[in-house]
Amino acid sequence: MRSFFKSRFVMVLAVMVCVTVLSSPAVAEVSLPNIFSDHMVLQRRQPNRVWGKASPGEKVSVSIGGQTKEATADADGAWKVTLDAMEAGRRLTLVAKGQANEVAISDVLVGEVWICGGQSNMEFALTSAYDSELLRLTANQPEIRWINFPNVGSQELIWTHANARWVVCTSQSVRSFSAVGYVFARIIRESVDVPVGIINNSWAGSRAEAWVPRSYFEGKENLLPIVARYDAFAKDLAELDAKGQLSAEEQRRATQLRTDVSGDDRPANAYNGVVASHAGYGIRGVLWYQGEGNAPRAFQYRELFPLVIESWRKEWGQSDFPFYWVQLPNYQNEKSEPSDSEWAELRESQTMTLAMPNTGQAVTIDIGEGNDLHPRNKEDVGRRLARWALARDYGFEIPCRSPMYRSMHVDGGKAILSFDHVNGSLRSRSISTVRGFSIAGEDRKFEWADATIGRNGTITVSSGQVPKPVAVRYAWADNPVCNVYDTAGLPLTPFRTDDWAGLTAEAK
Predict the structure, then answer these.
(1) What's the confidence (pLDDT) of residue 10?
(2) Pairing of strands 102-118, 285-289
(3) Which of the two residues, 9 and 505, has the higher pLDDT score?
(4) Which of 154, 171, 200 corresponds to the end of one domain?
(5) Distance CA 260, CA 284 (A)
(6) Helix/strand/coil (H, E, C) string of 298-320?
(7) How far apart are CA 259 and CA 278, in angstroms?
(8) Are residues 152 and 13 in the same domain?
(9) Is residue 422 domain-resident?
(10) How far is CA 176 from CA 126, 184, 441, 501, in A?
(11) Domains in the chain: how many in total?
């Protein structure tokens, strides 16, 4: 398998962007957004778009090896070319020349490019992760590169970020990089034997709606209340700004509104301010770790999260690229009795999104921390995401999908459950007793249940307090005690067999 992916590398390959300028005395400098910078990684085996700005009507040609592409800057000065697909390569050089300037981009690699998106747990730096000192010892990986984009909220599209640059992975530079992103990149790099680039878009505290372009909310009745709320904030702020002389209370209100309309919650803010500057850059796929901020509206997330995926795929214009996410881990206090849970409902919405094509979910219900929103075990998270990419995108025959509930039938006072995607067999971990199941009758009152794993891969669930069961739940809590895995060590996906209205059913 390794030899199949091993590429013939070209040690030096010149990429020339030759610009023929107009005779006009006012000539704009040729420029590219900062996604094109020293140490960048281009996606192999697919066409790659390169774009920038120049004088209106200016002729631009881009040459790489034996191929040459040409474009003419439009009335706004924008130009774009599409390079033919390339195999993996190292130490390329790109030079953009204009009448008044020259831009040289050196040490360019061609390999595999992934985006890391979401909120703080994707942003979580390697230096704060468990075993970071050990991970750093092997982090001198010159063929792993990343670029961190700043957290900028905007209702207008931002074309480039002056302080965003590609960085070569070293034991020092890796300290500030996404721990999940680094672990994923290292596994892909070592398994596939090609350079790996990571584009980090994550923003602590961001809601899913902030990552969706505004136009995609049109016609979405269940999501429009989010847009209307922030439009009202913007209207109130404009009225206060127009008023001029403000009371102390009005000044306080204006300050809060200014924070609200420019922050990481407002629809489209993160997409416009962070993602738009490199939407369309060649990628293999997206890794996503987000949802904590949307837990109070978990039912709404059933529609909102797929909209994130749909909108990014359409804006990229690169078909249905892989989109793999981390399901929320266990968090907060354990409950002595079965109860409803916003986090459980959010996890359910994430699992339902697997109905979309080319998606995958890394279940992490076993590696969170009850007293910390930011669990420090990020290596297992990166490993479980890497399983999806290796199995789905790089041809390795390894398990990637956690077991999932398929069906239930009731026999007397027992509920018998069947499952899909079981790698080997199901088993309990740490202790022989199966933990994490609750059961309810028609009164919808859940009780902790006894559970046994059958040789045929089923699980039988019962309780003396529920003689006529109609519903079963597993790991249905903020921080459930649960211990069912398959032979590959992947945890059973949390689930419920009922569809009864939960805590967030009406939350908009």
Answers:
(1) 33
(2) parallel
(3) 505
(4) 200
(5) 34
(6) CCCHHHHHHHHHHHHHHHHCCCC
(7) 25
(8) yes
(9) yes
(10) 6, 15, 51, 42
(11) 3
State whether 166 and 100 are in the same domain: yes
For residues 53 and 28, is the Cβ–Cβ distance under 8 A? yes
User: Are 261 and 305 within 8 A, CB to CB?
Assistant: no
Tell me the mean pLDDT in the region 265-288. 97
Residues 170 and 29 in one domain: yes
pLDDT tens digits, residue range 10-63? Answer: 333 333 333 333 334 456 788 899 999 999 999 999 999 999 999 898 888 777
Amino acid identity of residue 230, one-letter, is Y
**Tens-place pLDDT, residues 186-225:** 999 999 999 999 999 999 999 999 999 999 999 999 999 9
Same domain, 99 and 227: no
H helices of 393-506, in order, are none
457 is in which domain, residue-wise? 404-496
C-alpha distances out from residue 97 to 54, 58, 107, 355, 465, Å: 10, 12, 18, 47, 78
Identify the pLDDT of residue 98: 64
91 vs 79: CA distance, rounded Å: 25
d(CA 50, CA 115): 18
Entry pTM? 0.93
Where do we find the tokens 């400098």? 29
189 in the same domain as 113: yes
Could you list the beta-strand ranges (E) of 152-284.
Answer: 166-169, 196-200
Percent of all residues in the chain with a pLDDT value above 70, rounded to a whole number = 93
Q: What is the DSSP string of 67-88?
A: EEEEEE--TTSEEEEEEPP---
Q: Is residue 322 part of a domain?
A: no
Residue reference for tokens 């074309």: 159
Distance of CA 507 to the CA centre of its chain: 24
Whether residues 44 and 179 fall in one domain: yes
Q: State the average pLDDT over residues 381-400.
A: 98
Residue 361 tokens read as 């979910």
Q: Are 123 and 274 in contact (CB under 8 A)?
A: no
Residue 51 lies in a domain: yes
Q: Are residues 120 and 222 in the same domain?
A: no
Residue 439 lies in a domain: yes
Give Cβ neighbours of residue 154 (< 8 Å, ≥ 6 apart).
262, 269, 272, 273
Same domain, 16 and 41: yes
153 closest CA partner among 219, 230, 228, 236: 230
